[in-house]
Amino acid sequence: MGSLYKQKSRDGSPGRIWWMKYYANGRPVRESTGVEKESEARRILKGREGRLAAGQPVLPRADQVRYEEVATDLRQHYRTTGSRDLVEVEGRLAHLDHFFAGRRIAGIGQAEVTAYVLQRQIKAATNGTINRELGVLIRMFKLAYEDGKLLRPPVIRKLRESGPRQGFFERDQYGRIRRYLPADLQVAITIAYTFGWRMQSEVLTLERRQLDLKPGTLRLEPGTTKNGEGRLVYLTPELKSLIAAQVDRVAALERQTGTIIPFLFPHLRGQFRGQRRCDFRKTWATACKKAGVVGMLRHDFRRTAVRNMVNAGVSERVAMKVTGHKTRSVFDRYHIVSPADLQDATRKLSGITTGITGGVKGKPRS
């Protein structure tokens, strides 16, 4: 049988933390429970004895490991493996850190996760956003289990999400928005509209060295995309002309500033002139409002490009290479079918069936 006790401090007074003594393989083990309440300490001791009786492994620190330790482990894991975008991960962890800081991970279960979800919903976070954060928490617990810091990962239930966004641009919508954007951003959205590249991480990060106007190619380097694979596309005549004009604008800015500008989309004016443009949310929202298509997202260009390529007869394998979709399931989700597509299908079917069912002379068969 195990026992509980408190170690004496240097002045001879009893300490605040309960310690426990139990036997593993006939040998005494002394371990701090890390808690001040006797009832909680006894629960930890009984848990140890129960695992020993069942022949299960005992992890001495499992009840002491705090959230901060395993969060640090997760950051280090992603930093060394490169399996996730660290900026994205830090955005998820910022909310988790604020809520779970100071907690023992052995004491985090579905009840605590439900409390976290309620807090995020009060702050108007969508179920999809919350689920992405819970996914990071689940990975954190799994890593802690693999590292021997957690006896068993808790069961965490995710929320029901609404169906994936179905937004895409009809050609006239895209044309109207483009008219209200400055020339350099017209080039940026044309790349996104044509190839389905992600605006912030793939289009706005482009450098001039990734462009070769002679053969008319544009490339993304391996390791810079979400799936880690590089991409090479051949420019349409329209894009080749637009990008050449953009290169001339950047070259003119270099002459004005006397500095070398490697970026394809730098700020052309203002206090950040010459620096890489990272975003243009406000400019985009204003253009959408003027064009009468409020609520459209730049990420909708990915669905639009997929739809346009498939409808133009580009093979799905080639289209996936262009857009960077690695799995067929995600590609299919991005292939949106509009009412206009369905009407076009009916027109094509009408052409096939006309002459077979119609215009036949003679009596119908009985």
Please give the structural blueprint.
Elements lengths: L2 E6 L5 E11 L2 E6 L5 H16 L13 H15 L4 H15 L9 H13 L4 H20 L24 H9 L3 H13 L3 H5 L7 E2 L4 E4 L10 E4 L2 H21 L23 H11 L8 H12 L4 H8 L4 H7 L4 H15 L13
Antiparallel strand pairs: 1-2, 2-3, 4-5, 5-6
Helix pairs in contact: 2-3, 2-5, 3-5, 6-10, 7-9, 7-11, 11-12
Task: Report on the architecture of this protein.
- With 366 residues, the chain is mainly α.
- It has helices at residues 38-53, 67-81, 86-100, 110-122, 127-146, 171-179, 183-195, 199-203, 237-257, 281-291, 300-311, 316-323, 328-334, 339-353; strands at residues 3-8, 14-24, 27-32, 211-212, 217-220, 231-234.
- A hairpin with a 5-residue loop joins strand 1 (3-8) and strand 2 (14-24).
- The radius of gyration is 30 Å and the shape is elongated.
Q: Tell me what the CATH architecture of the largest domain is.
A: Orthogonal Bundle
Helix content: 40-55%
H-E string:
EEEHHHHHHHHEEEHHHHHH
Number of domain modules:
3
Uncertain runs are none
Number of strands: 6
CATH class of the largest domain: Mainly Alpha
- The side-by-side strand order for the widest beta sheet comes to 1-2-3
Mean pLDDT: 84
Distance between the termini: 93 Å
Instruction: Using the CA coordinates, give the radius of gyration.
Output: 30 Å
Q: Would you identify the CATH H-level superfamily of the largest domain? A: Intergrase catalytic core
Shape: elongated
